[in-house]
Amino acid sequence: MEPQRMDKADFITALFLSIFGLAIVIVSLRMPDFRNLGANPYSAPGIVPAVLGAILSILGMVLLIRSISRKGYYLNFSFSGILFLFKQSSIKRLLIAAVLSLLYVALLGKIHYFILSFSYIFIFILAYEFNLKERILRQKSNFIIAFLEAFLIAGSIALVFQYLFLVRLP
User: Do residues 90 and 154 share a domain?
Assistant: First the structure.
């Protein structure tokens, strides 16, 4: 990527990281600290996410300052540029991952954990491995591997959480 386009990408990324890190800090500080139960305030569950959110926000600000110094804030949006952006395979993959992940989160607790996780992993693998230009019968190994991976991963996660960590899954 050419340096001028990287500065623009850095500017957008820096804004996102700074805001996202700040949101993590705010949400983490709202978590219970269990002081009323006599617990050590440093054992609060929001401490580590708050520190990581702060680090993310600070590094986002550093990137923002660097991109501003290189005039990355001049974005020059156009409709054809946005269409070109969404035609790139990397952006399509990002959108597929985002939609699948949001759907997974929306269905969590409404569908049995193993079935939902298996389906999520299976569809996710196929979304990246499946080739629309090739015949389905030639790609049956992709289906088999995706099925086995999804089954083993979803099953092992469910077993570890239920029997090792003693957590009831939705």
Answer: yes
Q: Which of 73, 50, 51, 56 is nearest to 19 (CA)?
A: 56
Note the pLDDT tens digit of each residue in 24-68: 999 988 887 776 667 777 777 788 899 999 999 999 999 999 888
Q: Would residue 156 count as lying in a domain?
A: yes
40 and 70 housed in the same domain: yes
pLDDT in the model for residue 52: 95
Domain assignment of residue 31, yes or no: yes
Q: pLDDT digits over 58-97, tens only?
A: 999 999 998 888 877 666 666 676 676 667 777 788 888 8
Q: Looking at per-residue confidence, does 132 or 134 come out higher? A: 134
